[in-house]
Amino acid sequence: MDSEIQRSEATLRVNGKPHTLLLDHRRVLLDVLREDLDLTGAKKGCDHGQCGACTVLADGRRVNSCLLLAVSLDGSDITTVEGLSADGEGPHPLQRAFLDRDAFQCGYCTPGQLCSALGALAEAAAGHPSHVTDPALPSGRPVPLDRTEIRERLSGNLCRCGAYPRIVEAVEDVIP
Amino acid sequence: MARTALGAPVERREGLAKVTGAARYAAEHHLSGLAHARAVPAGVIRGRITGIDTGPARAVPGVLTVLTHENAPRLAEPDDATLALLQNPDVPHRGWCVALVVAETPEAARAGADAVRVSYDTADHDVVLAPGHPGAHEPEEANGGQPAGHRHGDPESAFAQAAVRVDVTYRTPPLHNHPMEPHASTATWDRGRLTVYTSSQGTSDVRSVLAGLFAVPVDRITVRAEHVGGGFGSKGSARPDVVLAALAARHTGRPVRVTWPRRRMPTAVGHRAPTYSRLRLGATSDGRLTALLHDVTTHTSPVRSFVELAGTTSGVMYATPNLDVVHHVVPLDVPSPSWMRAPGEATGMYALESAMDELADELGMDPIELRIRNEPDREPAGGLPFSSRHLVECLREGARRFDWHHHVRHAEGPVLIGTGVAAATYPVMVSPCAATAAALPDGTFEIRVNASDIGTGARTVLAQIAADALAVPLDRVRTEIGDSDLPQAPVAGGSSGTASWGSAVHEACARLLNRLADHTGPLPEHGIGVRADTSGRADADCPYARHAFGAHFAEVAVDTVTGEVRVRRLLGVYAAGRILNARTARSQFVGGMTMGLGMALTEGSTLDPAFGDFAEADLASYHVPAHADVPDIEAHWIDEDDPHLNPMGSKGIGEIGIVGTPAAIGNAVHHATGSRLRTLPLTPDRVLTALNAR
Questions:
Q1: Do both B291 and B361 map to the same domain?
Q2: Does residue B419 contact residue B551 with C-beta atoms inside 8 Å?
């Protein structure tokens, strides 16, 4: 190992606010959020991209923030659970739906479920098919989301408390 | 109006904090000067450390120090030997912590941990459990005084003479709790005072353990756990993270955080031990049990004895004149097993309820009718009358809702559809607890009790209990929990949290009402407060056998081409006393059933015979159910009025949901295919093998 820690400067826009940071090359986005920016909404459940608790939106797409080296994200726009609703407004409609449906218990997977669901809704609206999408559907058109589609598209986000049925209902509540 | 608080589907009080990311968990407290620590796991199974070279680790930029048994602060001997960390060179199992690297950043701690070089003298090991293992012994008691066996009548003779017999062995693998929040602790010492943020099901107990280990009075220790990302038993007592954080903080003089990596959790935080359950059921030709013998073989570790008491529920369920429950425990060189949701009940009822299904087949009886025919009028093992028992009602109500009697097995092309049923039970437990209640001049009330909310909604239901007892609107009650400086409380475990904490809260509120009735004029500035402590009463002997009961129904689809089993429907009906919050209770029932689905179909761990560690340690190899595995799940309950429980009339609900689910799913697979699989989980390889053997 080198005797010095390798660092580079990068600028991330997080929840609309730019942060210029001198980053250890090993530091992943999740640790930047949690340790450097004190945005602890994104959770560390496995640190290996296996549980989805760290899911945030990077340039509008859902990502496992534990798998992304932060230094590679210079110029990216990051949205975390803390940024889902604008300042001064109430919770995002999906956050409200999670409360209404009791779509969580311990709450640790919840920020990841929320960000992942919003990413999934955008993917479906953009016409991205999933494993369970009817191949006969016209490509490029929005994919309608039934419960099977929602379950498939959210299967990267584990919930050990078993709130899955309520999460599916909450997501259904905000489908336009 | 005020008295409707109890039972209402009240929204979680901390809900907004959880959905906005504001809720802080154990590893999310930023203390000035915080250092990060990472444990180094033993690289051998059994042996002794002969040397540790920490030089390369200390040379890693950012590493502050490396703690080993040679330089770590000395601890007093703990009751739980899994907490005697870095105190001696012995290695009892693979993964045991042999060093702790403390660094400025998590990255440096990880690089440092990789650079520690340890040499060992190794000894022979054995991690393989099998019935008839020469190391097996039969404990009379286990897990702190619980009876580990029961016998009445002449079970062997009665079984030999029975008209109809079932003699089968069911097997469950090691299972891992895997709460979504890994174990984590942040500790800081300030002039002899220790403050810890940890992820625990009970911080009063953690405080006592730390006080013993560090020889510090409890009033100089504060342990906080405001939000806890699940536990399922694995956070039911102090685990290595909290001891290591306190050790490292004392050694370095800085706040230290220890976060446990996901794939290191199985060796450090406990697991559900594997079981072999041999069930021998003897019955008359009209389906009355004449003999029930449940013989369990399971493992424990030499470090901390814990027995998965899988046979105990066989003494609760069915009337039989001849009963034998026995546990054979084999100490192996394995990580220490511990509590996992319904420890003993989930494994034992999988075996018993599957065997009952086999007996119903032998008799040509409906499995619900078989269970109803063997309904006891007293608890078979203990002989006490039940405080309440509505298993039959649960079975009948479930059958009606599930449309059980109109369900026939059928095929959809290569996919076979079948249904299954199983009963469930879980004991009523309660522990002593203290709480305070105060009336404040602004018209609000403050309840203080060191309850833990691991996702159950504790602070919400305790507010409901208080509002009901005080006869005031819910929004005038505040609850403070999750801090060991609050009145001492037992853990969120054994499905006993709400009963234990709630009894103390209820009593404190009743006393407060009495005090307020005697008070005239405005309240003083700091209000009027009272304290209650249920010691000596909550844990008093009860002349009744107290258990919750339930019935589980499953519909499965078995793909004969791939061997995949999918659950299409899952339905549970419970008799668990009074349900105190319909919203959060339903979530707990459904959550238990989801974990039962995992136990039935996807979750299984293996102790590698040569390597001595769990082969399926992380979430990529140990498959907890994902969204796509879980259908719509229904949980219902029947009104049960039981005056022999607690002031709320409630039984525990956190664990019973898992108890009957695996057997219901396994019985449905048999119904669909005609094949009886007796080893969990029912993975495609096992299902295809069974189908091909037909």
A1: yes
A2: no
